[in-house]
Amino acid sequence: MKAIHLPLVTHLHHHDLDPNKNRVPVVYAYQDVKTSKKSNRLGEKLSNLLNIQKNDPTRSNLNDIHEDKANTPTMSPKEDISDRWCDIHGVQEWEGLLDPLHPFLRREIVKYGEFAQATYDALDIDSFSEYCGSCMYNSHKLFDKLGLNKSGYRVTKYIYAMSQIDMPQWLERSKLTYTWSKDSNWIGFVAVSDDEESRRIGRRDIVVAWRGTVTPSEWYENMQRKLESIGHMDSKVEHGFLSIYTSKCDSTRYNKSSASQQVMKELKTLVEFYKTKGEQVSLTITGHSLGGALALLNAYESAANFPKLPISVISFAAPRVGNIAFRDELYQMGVKILRVTVKQDLVPRMPGIVLNESLQKFDDLTGTLEWIYTHAGTELKLDVRSSPYLKRGFNFIGIHMLETYLHLVDGFVSSTSTFRSNAKRDVALVNKACDMLVDELRIPTCWYQLAHKGLECNSYGRWVRPKRHPEDIPSPTREQLL
């Protein structure tokens, strides 16, 4: 019998804050070309076990398809959904709209997802920058810089957050001695629909977008696995999430008031202003990963302060946030929650991988358990394997990335249909900060970065770090005036 050669090669790339490095853990398996039929069968079993994508002839023309789309617009005309905004807002819990996914709803989910993505794309994560952890642009030019100038929304407020517990993986810090802030980070923004967009969607829509963590692989390890009371009833939420949302300190420049206080003050101003004008107003809160958790806390507080305001949450890859009482209170207050998840993503299973809502089946024996975590809302579950453009295998970072989620939403038709061929969103966006696209597309990994990594050639021919424009420098005074 011939010897079986089955080398299993594993490449684990370091998870680094530098977006220009390959920080994706990928497992490759290959077989010797001289293996026997038995070894081939063994290789197939190993490939299935590791979920490795084998050569697939149906993928051979992917690059041709991608190039054919290069000359087509990434956006189709916006539909008037003013007579359906209640359904799309989740008044009927999105019944009949998710499977198959209604085109109007798909477009709105992507719209809010792109607001959440903006909180990553505009974040200064250069540890050698004195403004590391801030937004690179002022609020008036944010959407223009990120290609969202046709979104129909304008930013009205930036939100800053800090934490009084050690959660280093969400807080970006500069290596320099003198920086804009040693304690706070830019965590999101408030925006409002303009007149044209408000007519299209049927109401004045206020949006709050929350940022998640830059390195999602490690935030769970730093999380405090502890439930803390919120409100006046039995509701409890994860201690680390609540700390980021409510922490403040008089000695800081940007968090003399907490993220909670900043956003609620702005919401109160906007809601009162537009209601005084006799307009229908809604609040839509979005976020990815940690941002999805903060979105739920924000929705809970907003519902308590604006009891008659339609409030919905559209989150992506959000972890569990609180206990069953917290979930039930959200329902009682009328908050509508749509959770977009990916089957292969581990973050939505945290915290409470063991002690979670599945224990409810034992209520007769245990009674109501106040100390277990549970998800809230309606779930739209996607599958990486549905897209012919995505690599297979265990790729924790790539699967969790918001751009991967938006790609899958854009291509999802139904649980029984294939990836839609007329998907509009640019496939190349998936690889902005990871390595998820199949090699046939020839899209570089982690390609999203500043030109020359932020350096500029000055008049003397020296490559230097340019000064930020004065209006883009974070200023607590300026933010208070916006």
TrEMBL record:
Gene Ontology, cellular component aspect: chloroplast
Principal location class: plastid
Annotated segments matching region Disordered: 57-78
InterPro entries: AB_hydrolase_fold, Fungal_lipase-type
Fungal lipase-type domain sequence ranges: 207-353
A Gene Ontology BP annotation from the UniProt entry: lipid catabolic process
Keywords associated with the record: Chloroplast, Hydrolase, Lipid degradation, Lipid metabolism, Plastid, Transit peptide
GO molecular function, one term: phospholipase activity
Subcellular location: Plastid, Chloroplast
Pfam family, one: Lipase_3
Family: Belongs to the AB hydrolase superfamily. Lipase family.
Protein name: Fungal lipase-type domain-containing protein
Organism per entry: Solanum lycopersicum (Tomato)
Name of the gene this protein is made from: LOC101267144
